[in-house]
Structure formats: C-alpha cells, structure tokens
Specification:
The chain contains 10 helices and 12 strands. The protein is of the alpha+beta class. The strands form 3 sheets. It has a 5-stranded mixed β-sheet with strand order 4-3-12-7-8. Strands 5, 6, 9, 10 and 11 form a 5-stranded antiparallel β-sheet that branches. Keywords: Membrane, Transmembrane, Transmembrane helix.
Length: about 375
Amino acid sequence: MRGTAITARVGLALGVAVAVCFVTGLISHFIQHPQPWFFWPTRPVWLYRLTQGLHVISGIAAIPLIVVKLWSVWPKLFERPVIGGFVRQLERASILVLVGAMLFQLSTGIMNIAQWYAFEFFFTTSHYAMAYVAAGAVLVHIAVKLPVIRRALGEPLEQPSGELPGVPGLSRGLTRRTVLRGTWLAVAVATVATAGQTVPLLRKVSVLAPRTGQGPQGVPVNRSAIAAGVLRTARSPQYRLTVTDGAVSRAFTLEDLQAMPQVTHRLPIACVEGWSVDAEWTGAVLADLLATVGASPDSDVRMISLEPPGPYSRTTLPARHVRDSQTLIALRLNGEALDLDHGYPCRLIAPTRPGVLQTKWLSRIEVVP
C-alpha cells in the first residue's frame, strides 16, 4: 500500500492543490503590492472572495494529502545506502527542501488564518518568499520523478486477493483503493469543516472555521479599535476627514459626510485569512467626495487611517477602483451607524479588495500626483 501507485495519485491531487494555492496566493500578494503590469478588475464584486477563498481552501485540503504522501514514502527515506553518491545526495536534499517548504507554508498559513502569530517574523513577507521555494521544489521533484510518476499512474489499484505472504490464514485487509478513498474522505472533511468561513451554505457545519460570520453588525472583526489605538481620536468631537488634491484641501465633519447623497450597495468583505461575508454598506461615493476638491477620479488615491503608522495604516487605491460607483466612504453597515470596531466614523469599502486594504477609521484622503 505504500507503493508508488498510492504516492503518484495522492501526489497528483497535492500538485493540483499546491498550484491553485500558489496562483491565488500570488493574486492576493500583487493586489496588496501592485506592480505596473498587474491588473485587478472591480467586477465581479465577489472575485477576491473567490480567489482568496480558494487559496485557503486548497491550502487546507493539501494538509491530509501531504500527510498521506509522506506516509506512503516514509520507508523509502531510510533505504540503504543512507548517504549514497552525489546524485542520491542531491535527490535527498531536494526532497528535504520540498518537505520543509511545504510544511512551513501549510503550518504558518494555518496559524495566520487563526491569527496565532507565535513566530517572530513578518508572516506576509516570509510566506510569499517561501511560496517560490515550495513551487520550485515541486517542479524539480516532478521533473526528476516524471518517469516514475508515469509508470505509477499506470499501475492498477487492485491488489491480488488471498492470504498475506508468509502469514497463512490471514487475509488481506486494507487495499490501495481503500487508502485512496480514505484520503479523499479526509480531504472532504477538512474542507467542509473549514470552508464555511467562505461559503455561507457550509457555515453551520464548518465547525473548525476560524471565522463564523458573527461579529458586530453581523460582520467579523480582525482588528478592533482598542488594538488599533483609535478609541479617543475616532470619538473626538474634533474629528475631521480631510480630502486633498495638491494645494486644494477640504475638511469634512461627520455631519458633512452624512449630508452628502447616500447610496447603499451590497458588497462582500473578504479578508486574506479566507473569511468573507456579504453586507449592506451605505455612504458617500468616493468619486463624489473627490469632486468637492476638483479632483479627477482617474488618479490613484491614498487612504490614511487614524491608526498610528503601521503596515496597513496607509493604503493606495488604484484609479479603476476610485472611479467605480460602488466604491464608498461608508458611514453605515447593515442599516446601522458603523460600529467603532468596523471603522467609525467612516471607512473605505471598495469592490474586489482585501479587507486589510479597506481602510478603517479614515482621517485623510490624498490624490496621488
């Protein structure tokens, strides 16, 4: 049962999961760190919800797959000669890199969606860099083992029936097909138990999902106002939202923002941890707000939070999102004034953007020259 027939079939499924995880992870990275060549549309509004949901779901599905794959090859790792010649040492080293990179990616990814940062390094940078190591190791492994993989995929799953060799009267129990069925079942259970944070229909049965969809006003909270250190400034009577375009600047009180034409859109908010939820957001259209200072909606815009300087206290919104009619400076959520933990007095909400870039507790909006 630990033969290549099992290893190759599980490895094929693992390769698909890794490919999906890698591609969707790159999409998320380039949305957060855009390059001149990268394009990310504003429609459909659920697109980031789909790609990042697939990223986390495929990563979780890969966990039972890599466990079974390691189980199937474990004895071969200790075959003699343990050291061997240069070619064997090189193969062993490549396998070590592959296994180490995969375990690092999956374990830190799980810790991230649970927001348990027991490590001291910055997750985003390390996870992104190691993704290339893991992907490269997978490609090298496939290239080296391709003849073996082709031969193994052609092996039948059925094993000869009868007694086990050397053990008269003892019939065979588990079969290769049973092992594979158990693997697919484990993948299905792991997926269903966690995918509810992305797929609303599974929310009640996803008992291991880090985010249940519950929170103030029916939306989960990743970073609270207390954690962000904005309790006093967000509640201050002197609060103003400043909008600037070069030398032209205008300060808006909360009442000024409420007096502007208000629109409501139902948009999903989706976070890099994989959770997402639909909500009704009400506020002023960003393009209308920029028009009050004579700014063109065809420029990138910098969003600055009341939060002290940090990795996401300042974000840049691309022009295609700036001019989208569904990009709002939101004042209300699901029919109620924004909860403090959701960005009161106002926040950005734009279609197909990661939640970490939907800046909360806005204090300043600047047109990028």
